[in-house]
Amino acid sequence: MGNLGFQEILLIAVVILVLFGGRKIPEFMRGLGKGIREFNDAKDNVKKELEEGMKEKDRVAANGTTAAPASNNTAATTTQP
């Protein structure tokens, strides 16, 4: 599986030509190209966000600080005589 010879590719091309006709093939290929382009753009955006997240994590770890939210619980820290 995965080894397509010349005869198999030719058969696939003939079937596509019969199913879609000569006029629809360019439209089909344009749509396929747009879909692949959108997929690659989304993949690149996810990769970029992951890399930025890793850089942020490394930067926070290098500074020795955490991004934990500050607590507003003052009742536990104050004492009454």
Automatic annotation (TrEMBL):
One GO molecular-function entry: protein transmembrane transporter activity
Entries under InterPro entries matching the protein: TatA/B/E, TatA/E
Membrane topology: Single-pass membrane protein
Stretches of the chain forming a coiled coil according to its record: none
Region (Disordered): 56-81
One GO cellular component term noted in the UniProt record for this chain: TAT protein transport complex
Localization annotation: Cell membrane
Signal sequence, start to end: none
GO terms for biological process, alphabetical: protein transport by the Tat complex
Chain intervals with Low complexity compositional bias: 61-81
Entry keyword annotation includes Membrane: yes
Transmembrane regions: 6-22
Keywords: Cell membrane, Membrane, Protein transport, Translocation, Transmembrane, Transmembrane helix, Transport
Matches recorded under Pfam families: TatA_B_E
Superkingdom, taxonomy of origin: Bacteria
UniProt record similarity statement: Belongs to the TatA/E family.
Functional note: Part of the twin-arginine translocation (Tat) system that transports large folded proteins containing a characteristic twin-arginine motif in their signal peptide across membranes. TatA could form the protein-conducting channel of the Tat system.
Family matches, as HAMAP family: TatA_E
PANTHER family: SEC-INDEPENDENT PROTEIN TRANSLOCASE PROTEIN TATA
Quaternary structure, from the entry: Forms a complex with TatC.
Protein name from the UniProt record: Sec-independent protein translocase protein TatA
Originating organism: Ilyomonas limi
Organism classification: Bacteria, Pseudomonadati, Bacteroidota, Chitinophagia, Chitinophagales
Gene that encodes the chain: tatA
